[in-house]
TrEMBL record, chain A:
Pfam families noted in UniProt: PP-binding
Carrier domain: residues covered: 9-86
Name of protein: Carrier domain-containing protein
Source domain of life: Bacteria
Lineage: Bacteria, Pseudomonadati, Pseudomonadota, Alphaproteobacteria, Acetobacterales
Originating species: Acetobacter nitrogenifigens DSM 23921 = NBRC 105050
Automatic annotation (TrEMBL), chain B:
Cofactors: pyridoxal 5'-phosphate
Start and end residues of each Aminotransferase class I/classII large domain: 46-385
GO terms, molecular function: transaminase activity
Gene3D superfamilies for the chain: Aspartate Aminotransferase, domain 1 (3.90.1150.10), Type I PLP-dependent aspartate aminotransferase-like (Major domain) (3.40.640.10)
Ligase keyword on record: no
InterPro entries the record matches: Aminotrans_II_pyridoxalP_BS, Aminotransferase_I/II_large, AON_synthase_class-II, PyrdxlP-dep_Trfase, PyrdxlP-dep_Trfase_major, PyrdxlP-dep_Trfase_small
TM spans (from-to): none
Protein's UniProt name: Pyridoxal phosphate-dependent aminotransferase family protein
Highest taxon of the lineage: Bacteria
Natural source organism: Acetobacter sacchari
Length: 89, 395
């Protein structure tokens, strides 16, 4: 995966990266995957979600507008959103 | 399924807070103020170190007299909005006073500082624009982002490089970019690196709004806030603030050199659809401003007091904010520890604010203290002593 080249980053890649980042936090359950729900399964409050997304933003060199977060439930949703933002939408 | 189901979480959290027989921290009553620095709480004289009353002007004799005169002359309320029957000569006069204090052309006065942020930010940043917020912004700024229709992007707290990165990512996208920062952050007392942020604003062509709620009357050679202290007032498009802290009354304002302010008045819902400030509040506010201007030594005293209190708590080995400002936050590791200490401080006659996550920046609880110009050196020493006694009694 070449960082910065939008075409080389698939939703699966980004989703895996997010799961890895999440697992770095010892409080997060070990059995998470792309379909884990961020609020329900990870017990994140709204601030924790925003702060976590900020870490991913750094990694992916993208800014996710807060209103987009409203539609995001699972790790895969977040990955889809980031890939779409990186491709200009 | 009841409409109240969603309140069960907060009910449980409240039950945990008070489980050990502790007080409800959100329900403290100051039975009456004895002075700006002492109030009666639970029947006892208690030192007030959590009131935001930075200059002690809530008890200004000049403001009290002015309010009484205004009430006698004009009655107690306006019963209307600024764009209907709620503008009296005193509202215009206050706007002119605040504008000229800041050396700016225009001022809009709001009924609270919360509404000033809510109104200005939601109205300025429109549907096709970007609103770029510091991650640790006050609730009024986050709420403004939800009332308005702009795309909202957060940058890392007080981090000019991160702000720059995010503005750079938006290069070439249509729409205005409104950057919002606070002068002194309300929870931690951190001061914004406004010089660097102003340079980024100039470079990227963004618009800059600074909320000086906690820095007005506190920082800068004449008390105009962080923008004045850092010499970047010319780069700040809008300064928002409140009368509810250093001036000791209530109300909010926005000052600006942009002539479009008069058009904002006609689009800004939190300005248009609420009653204007009552005349006695306006009179008291103008008198408190007179006090503040006439006594620059209040600011000097405040910064000395802040330094004494900050050094005192640091000397006890407490984890206090790095920057010295009148907001001195003590970070604790666990909520239980914070609740126990806060209760013990109040038992011993010291009132500070208990701030719990998620209202705190990093998931750790804070004992948020605020220092006043009117605290005596002996009161500050006593407050530090109470921290030491409370800490010792809790181990
Ligand atoms: C940073 C900040 N902005 C705005 C406000 C709102 O001020 P007011 O009390 O006038 O509504 C506050 C105070 O609560 C604040 O801390």
């Amino acid at each position: 995966m070449m960082k910065g080249d939008p075409m080389s980053e698939t939703i699966e890649d980004v989703s895996a990266l997010i799961v890895n980042k999440l697992l770095a936090n010892p409080k997060v359950p070990r059995d998470i995957n792309g379909s884990s729900k961020i609020v329900e399964d990870l017990a994140f409050d709204s601030l924790a979600v925003m702060n976590f997304v900020m870490e991913i933003e750094d990694e992916m060199d993208v800014s996710v507008p807060l209103d987009r977060l409203a539609d995001i439930r699972t790790v895969d949703d977040l990955a889809t959103c980031i890939v779409s933002l990186k491709n200009g939408g | 399924m009841s409409i109240f189901d969603k309140f069960r979480t907060v009910e449980q959290r409240l039950a945990l807070l008070t489980a050990g027989g502790g007080r409800n921290p959100f329900d403290v009553m100051i039975e009456r103020p004895v002075s700006s620095t002492v109030g009666i709480i639970e029947g006892r004289e208690t030192l007030l170190f959590g009131t935001n009353n930075y200059l002690g002007l809530s008890q200004s004799q000049r403001a009290i007299d002015a309010a009484i005169d205004a009430v006698r002359a004009r009655g107690v309320g306006t019963t209307g909005s600024r764009i209907a029957n709620g503008t009296q000569s005193v509202h215009r006069e206050l706007e002119q006073r605040i504008a000229s204090f800041f050396g700016q052309k225009h001022c809009m006065v709001f009924s609270t500082g919360y509404q000033a942020n809510l109104g200005m930010i939601s109205t300025l940043a429109g549907k096709d624009d970007y609103l770029i917020l510091d991650a640790d912004s006050h609730a009024s700024i986050y709420d403004a982002s939800r009332l308005g229709h702009a795309q909202v992007i957060r940058f890392k707290h007080n981090d000019p490089d991160d702000l720059h990165k995010r503005l750079r990512r938006l290069e070439g996208t249509p729409g205005a970019k409104l950057v919002v920062v606070e002068g002194i952050y309300s929870m931690t007392g951190n001061v914004a690196p406004l010089k660097e942020m102003a340079a980024i604003k100039r470079e990227t062509g963004a618009t800059l709004l600074v909320d000086e709620a906690h820095s007005f009357g506190v920082l800068g050679p004449t008390g105009r806030g962080v923008a004045e202290a850092e010499g970047v007032e010319a780069d700040v498009d809008f300064i928002v603030g409140t009368f509810s802290k250093s001036l000791g009354t209530v109300g909010g304002y926005c000052v600006s050199n942009h002539d479009e302010i008069d058009l904002v008045r006609l689009q800004c819902r939190p300005y248009m659809f609420t009653a204007s400030l009552p005349p006695e509040v306006i009179a008291a506010t103008m008198a408190a401003l007179d006090d503040m201007v006439a006594q620059p030594e209040l600011r000097t005293q405040l910064s000395q007091n802040a330094a004494q209190f900050h050094a005192g708590l640091k000397g006890l080995g407490l984890n206090v904010s790095q920057q010295v400002s009148p907001v001195v936050a003590v970070t604790l590791e666990t909520v239980e520890e914070a609740i126990a200490l806060w209760n013990r401080l109040l038992d011993l006659g010291l009132y500070v604010n208990l701030s719990l996550p998620p209202a705190t920046p990093d998931h750790r609880p804070l004992l948020r203290c605020s220092v006043m110009a009117s605290h005596t050196s002996a009161q500050i020493a006593r407050a530090v002593e109470i921290f030491a006694e409370a800490g010792a009694s809790l181990g």
